[in-house]
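Predicting structure from sequence has reshaped protein science. With that in mind, we have picked out one protein's residues alongside their backbone shape tokens:
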Amino acid sequence: MADLFFGGPFRRILYGRPFPPDWASASATAAMDWVETPTSHVLRINVPGLGKDDVKVQVEDGNVLTVRGAAPHAAAEKEREREKDVVWHVAERGRPEFAREVALPAEVRVEQIRASVDNGVLTVVVPKEPAPARPRTRPIAVSSKL
């Protein structure tokens, strides 16, 4: 009896996502690690399945690092076109998109930022400005007119 009520279409309503993915926000946030070394800030962002052409990294408003990514959807569209006579029950693997903004510290070299993708991880290296040289202490001779 319980299987009659909780099975079939009701199972998806009770145990599935509360909203279809299209109703959720247009972009998700990708998981990120941010470490600081003596010479740079290193950000590692999970981008599974994405290549260098699928990710966009830029600096906006002076020091806001923006990372956006979207999986190519051409392969998924071709797959759906080939399967015209099938019935889709769930389609959650669509075109995942994400966006992430990070306010960078003021003491960084924005023009030297590097980014690379390897094994589903985007690594962004933001070099630091070198610390200003501390002036050496030097004695100053004091003169007198007497």
In short: The longest strand covers residues 40-46. The first helix runs from residue 2 to 6. Residues 17-27 have pLDDT under 50 and may be disordered.
